[in-house]
Design goal:
mainly beta; 49% strand; seven-stranded mixed β-sheet; globular; four-stranded antiparallel β-sheet; 11 strands; 124 residues
Amino acid sequence: QLQLVESGGGLVQPGGSLRLSCAASGFTLDYYAIGWFRQAPGKEREGVGCISSNGGSTNYADSVKGRFTISRDNAKNTVYLQMNSLKPEDTAVYYCAASFFSSCPRDHRYFDTWGQGTLVTVSS
């Protein structure tokens, strides 16, 4: 069974940092681009960023550029989302998803395996 499991969410004060992890089981992440997404209460899901299968290429939403960094350790079958300078508007459930393409697709429909999400709350 192919699974992605996110972890690392929690409550953090504005300006703080968190690192989310996305661990795969049942398959190896080596060949897949991995995207991070988030959904805030009452809002549509939005893309946060993506990393290619070999880690050589990343892209980010304008809202997180310069604050968030995606990395991967294929030996650990895990992808990370480092979030710095967090703002209250970053509060959301964060999901990782695997695409069957090695490079990051523009269309979210090409991400076909999703994790269950982890909640990040930024509040004082």
